[in-house]
Design brief:
With about 325 residues, the protein is α/β, with parallel strands linked by helices. It folds into two domains: about 170 residues, Thiolase/Chalcone synthase (Peroxisomal Thiolase, Chain A, domain 1); about 160 residues, 3-Layer(aba) Sandwich (Peroxisomal Thiolase, Chain A, domain 1), CATH 3.40.47. It has ten helices and 13 strands. The chain has a five-stranded mixed β-sheet, sandwiched between helices. β12 and β13 form a beta hairpin. The longest helix is centred in the last third of the chain and has 23 residues. It is globular. The chain starts with a strand and ends in an 8-residue tail after the last strand. The relative contact order is 0.20. The structure holds acetyl coenzyme *A. The site of acetyl coenzyme *A has 24 residues, from α2 and α7.
């Protein structure tokens, strides 16, 4: 029998500190009105000095483990999707493994920018389908605030920090991760990038002025165009692979980059407002964390009512994009 998989837990790690649009008005030449009308964002959560990517990832992991009611010792693999890890190594996944006491787990990071969580879900699913592993923790965690130029109004208004996690478990005879679809286009990678933050600079005689060289750079208009084309293509393909029609989707959970992008896709697909899951207004663009964070919040608010067919779709740096169709049945074990 083909081994299937299902999501049994979801968790969140969100910094407490909130930065409002009014706070940003004091830093750059912008306005609350401009930010809200162009992006839908009102607030974002930003890490304090003593917080980190791994701290948020650990919080999300513990929350998801509680939701799924599993023992950390039973976790076989931890995958963290992140493009803003604490270190080149140890990986964030290893830091999570140590902190939660997942004593039997393998652990590695994966980098596909904002699409990272879809990539991680897909990789985790393959390990389950082959029978290699039974319980996998998949986390998306990013602290873009550490790579933003807080004097660049084009980018600093968009991002927030956070982590979101899923527990996926083997589910023989009842596969609920119906499809995944992944794409990339490195030829357009320059449209959004964090250059020079790794080994780009030779050691000898070429120390870049750090504050200038390692900031996120983005061509906003080109990324917008890319997103509104990539999302419908990924959704259509993921639906085809899952053998369902677009009309069978109960909820769309897109990468939370910009409310205008989300609304434009929803209108192309004829989705109703209540089918759209969005928390971009409160948390901004949390990159690899955004999809599980949006699901987590929608479940908390009772907006997603299981069982439901959920379409997850991501896009971002690389360029990368992808989608996954999921049947959501998981209920928080702490409320059972
Ligand atoms: N406040 C006030 N004015 C601003 C701001 C700001 N924060 N930012 C830019 N402007 C100005 C520009 O300088 C420009 O002024 P000009 O006409 O005098 O040159 C004007 O506003 C219009 O700028 P546009 O770039 O045309 O604004 P646009 O409507 O395209 O909105 C935005 C910009 C919000 C960035 C939009 O292009 C967008 O959302 N793009 C997608 C970004 C995205 O999703 N990125 C992340 C995806 S991948 C990942 O998550 C890692």
């Amino acid at each position: 029998m083909l081994i299937g998989a299902k999501i049994t837990g979801v968790g969140a790690g969100i910094p407490k500190s909130i930065v409002t649009n009014q706070d940003l008005e004091k830093l750059v030449d912008t306005s609350d009105e401009w930010i809200r009308t162009r992006t839908g964002i009102k607030t974002r959560h930003i890490v304090k000095e003593n917080e980190s990517n791994s701290k948020l990832a650990i919080e999300a992991a513990i929350d998801a483990i509680g939701y799924a009611n599993i023992n950390p010792n039973d976790i076989d693999l931890i995958i963290v999707a992140t493009s803003t890890p604490d270190n080149l190594y140890p990986s964030t996944a290893c830091l999570v493994q140590g902190a939660i006491g997942a004593s039997h787990a393998a652990a590695f990071d994966l980098e596909a920018a904002c699409t990272g969580i879809i990539y991680a879900l897909s990789v985790g699913l393959e390990f389950i389908k082959t029978g290699t592993y039974q319980k996998i923790l998949v986390i998306g965690a990013d602290v873009h605030s550490r790579f933003l130029d807080w004097e660049d109004r084009n980018t600093c208004i968009l991002f927030g920090d956070g982590a979101g996690a899923f527990v996926i478990e083997a589910s023989p005879g009842d596969n609920q991760i119906l499809s995944t679809y992944l794409r990339s286009d490195g030829g357009r990678g320059h449209l959004i990038c964090i250059p020079n933050s790794n080994s780009s600079f030779p050691h000898e005689g070429s120390k870049p002025p750090e504050a200038v060289k390692r900031f996120l750079k983005m061509n906003g208009k080109a990324i917008y165009e890319f997103a509104i084309n990539a999302i419908p293509e990924a959704l259509k393909t993921a639906c085809d692979k899952a053998n369902i029609a677009l009309g069978d989707i109960d909820y769309l959970i897109p990468h939370q980059a910009n409310q205008r992008i989300i609304d434009s896709v929803a209108s192309k697909l004829n989705l109703k407002k209540e089918q759209l899951i969005s928390n971009v207004a409160e948390v901004g663009n949390t990159s690899a964390a955004s999809i599980p964070l949006a699901i987590w919040q929608a479940l908390q608010a009772g907006q997603i009512k299981p069982p439901a067919i959920c379409a997850l779709v991501g896009f971002g740096g690389g360029l990368t994009w992808g989608a996954s169709i999921i049947k959501w049945t998981a209920i928080d074990s702490r409320n059972r």
